[in-house]
């Protein structure tokens, strides 16, 4: 055991876990005021549920010894994390439990990301059922495909890892996976009332920017921590993450300025996330100069992709498809173009004389995860919708999902201005008597 590596990975695990509350702020600011609590609760609900499932069987399915041709780890091998408690149980230079904790935060945010695609219209109870089922039959197996390398935790790992695809920190397993799932759920639940007609502007842009800042901060643990050691690979991943994310903000803002005449705060925050998504799989395979190129293009591609929902008619509320699916696809494929053997991954891409071999491997890994996630999520969402019901009633959507699902409001409009603010009869909302207090839903 190396104490320096252990300290770095535990710190990185904490940074990655902080990303999910950061995501809650990012998503929460982007929805209308009557939906912010529900939006944030979906992230916190994912933290609670997936944290338990990961300890029970999730880690074992993702990193247990393979039992299905590279498709699935043995769910009973580490059930309840049995056999992993002592310091003699190592993963590389780490106590096994440090590695377990680090990977748990990845599982949590992968599920939470999907919620942005169905903002304003999903029952909280149905979301929690979906989160548990999706993690069990989609995320945990896909994590095994991508992250379970032979001999690291168990003797036999996943098929994508064996194929030689590079996904340093989760472009396929997390972002393509969640993006494809978000598209499937958006199709199952249908469009929000007024989509494409009524303005659905973010209600709190400072909240969005705060959330994006927390995500960027935590993402250094996400990417650099995936080296699972305090070493040169972690340092390269850190610098490449900085370079690509900074460049992506510039790319998104430039696209907005040319297209719309304004560079917006929402665009800046979204560009940061797009760059973070794109560099996630590639941060160990590129040099800083090509990281800037990948980042700029990620900002441009994702800024253009968020408009696809209006062209094709699907309601991806907070652009999970446009940012995470498109950004994840670009980042994964960019390795096949820009990878250099000088970087820690040690592979040359097409533009560095490596030919098409790595690009092909990256392509079929990305497509396999995307298709699997989309089809299985479509089935899960359809079954939940037909049994317990996934979408709230139309009148509840109009009134506000926070009041209907949680009996709360994010903002007490009636007390603003020392009691002289708007009353229950105002256009902003209607009064609701709960627990002896009067709340107003915007």
UniProtKB/TrEMBL annotation:
PANTHER family, alphabetized? AMMONIUM TRANSPORTER MEP2
Work out whether the entry's keyword set contains Transmembrane.
yes
Q: Which NCBIfam families match?
A: amt (TIGR00836)
Q: Which residue intervals make up region (Disordered)?
A: 413-442
Q: What is its main location?
A: membrane
Output the Pfam families linked to this UniProt entry: Ammonium_transp
State where the protein is found: Cell membrane; Membrane
- Gene3D superfamilies recorded: Ammonium transporter AmtB like domains (1.10.3430.10)
* Residues annotated as transmembrane: 6-27, 39-63, 94-114, 126-148, 168-190, 202-222, 234-254, 266-283, 289-308, 320-341, 361-384
Per UniProt, which keywords does this protein have?
Ammonia transport, Membrane, Transmembrane, Transmembrane helix, Transport
Coiled-coil ranges per UniProt: none
Similarity comment text for this entry: Belongs to the ammonia transporter channel (TC 1.A.11.2) family.
Q: What is this protein called?
A: Ammonium transporter
Q: Which residues form the signal peptide?
A: none
> What residues does the Ammonium transporter AmtB-like domain cover?
7-411
UniProt xrefs under InterPro entries: Ammonium/urea_transptr, Ammonium_transpt, Ammonium_transpt_CS, NH4_transpt_AmtB-like_dom
Membrane topology of the entry: Multi-pass membrane protein
């Amino acid at each position: 055991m190396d104490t320096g590596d252990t300290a770095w990975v535990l710190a990185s695990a904490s940074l990655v876990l902080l990303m999910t509350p950061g995501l809650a702020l990012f998503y929460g600011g982007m929805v209308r005021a009557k939906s912010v609590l529900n939006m944030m609760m979906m992230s916190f609900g994912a933290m609670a549920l997936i944290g338990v499932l990961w300890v029970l069987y999730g880690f074992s399915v993702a990193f247990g010894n393979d039992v299905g041709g590279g498709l699935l780890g043995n769910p009973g091998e580490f059930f309840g994390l049995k056999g992993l408690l002592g310091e003699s149980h190592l993963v590389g230079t780490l106590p096994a439990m440090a590695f377990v904790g680090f990977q748990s935060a990845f599982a949590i945010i992968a599920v939470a990301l999907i919620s942005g695609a169905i903002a304003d219209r999903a029952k909280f109870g149905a979301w929690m059922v979906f989160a548990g089922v999706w993690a069990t039959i989609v995320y945990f197996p896909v994590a095994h495909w991508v992250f379970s390398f032979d001999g690291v935790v168990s003797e036999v790992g996943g098929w994508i890892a064996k194929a030689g695809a590079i996904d340093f920190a989760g472009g396929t397993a997390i972002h393509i996976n969640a993006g494809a799932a978000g598209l499937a759920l958006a199709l199952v639940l249908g469009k929000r009332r007024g989509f494409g007609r009524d303005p659905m502007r973010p209600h709190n842009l400072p909240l969005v920017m705060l959330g994006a800042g927390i995500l960027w901060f935590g993402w250094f643990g996400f990417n650099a921590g995936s080296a699972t050691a305090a070493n040169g690979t972690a340092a390269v991943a850190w610098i490449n993450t900085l370079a690509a994310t900074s460049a992506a903000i510039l790319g998104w803002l430039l696209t907005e300025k040319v297209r719309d005449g304004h560079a917006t705060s929402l665009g800046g925050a979204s560009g940061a996330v797009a760059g973070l998504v794109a560099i996630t799989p590639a941060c160990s395979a590129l040099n800083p100069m090509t990281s800037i190129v990948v980042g700029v293009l990620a900002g441009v591609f994702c800024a253009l992709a968020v408009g696809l929902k209006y062209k094709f008619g699907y309601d991806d509320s907070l652009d999970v498809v446009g940012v995470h699916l498109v950004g994840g696809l670009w980042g994964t494929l960019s390795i096949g173009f820009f990878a250099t053997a000088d970087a820690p991954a040690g592979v040359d891409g097409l533009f560095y004389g490596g030919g098409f071999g790595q690009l092909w491997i990256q392509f079929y890994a990305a497509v396999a995860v995307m298709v699997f996630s989309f089809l299985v999520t479509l089935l899960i969402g359809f079954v939940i919708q037909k049994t317990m019901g996934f979408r709230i009633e139309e009148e509840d959507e109009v009134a506000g999902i926070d009041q209907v699902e949680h009996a709360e409001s994010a903002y007490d409009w009636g007390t603003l201005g020392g009691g002289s603010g708007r009353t229950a009869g105002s256009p902003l909302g209607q009064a609701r008597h709960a627990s002896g207090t009067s709340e107003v839903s915007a």
